[in-house]
Amino acid sequence: MKSTFLLRFAVAVILIMHSVPGMFNNGINDFGNLYLNTVGFAPFGLALAWAIKLSHVVAAILLLLNKYIKPAAIVTIFILVVGIFMVHLPEGWYVVGGGRNGVEFNFLLIFVLLTIMFPNGITKKEQTPDL
């Protein structure tokens, strides 16, 4: 897994930068109270927002330590997929340029995390013939 260090480092930086500033500028509270609570998660929107952002911090640390990669990636991919459907898909594909706040960045992160999880690709295990 040393061959994935650069990808793990890049994703860790992205996850930290996507979560830590919101802990200090009221972004997480706004996300929970002003978005999640209004789309059906009340009264748990704030707690859910904090859980999501704290999971990003934990995933970033685990990616840097090269520990529990698959569970960290699976949780993060789940959050990214839900984010696509709840937030980004209505905005289209593009993050910038042809649009704003679209799905393309989440799509890329999902496949980077899959590559980290499966650095040799997803291969079918060789089966032994029945004797």
TrEMBL record:
InterPro entries named in the record: DoxX
Ranges that cross the membrane: 5-24, 44-65, 72-90, 102-122
Keywords in alphabetical order: Membrane, Transmembrane, Transmembrane helix
UniProt-recorded name of the protein: DoxX family protein
Location in the cell: Membrane
Domain of life: Bacteria
Annotated GO CC locations: membrane
Pfam families: DoxX (PF07681)
UniProt topology in membrane: Multi-pass membrane protein
Coiled coil: none
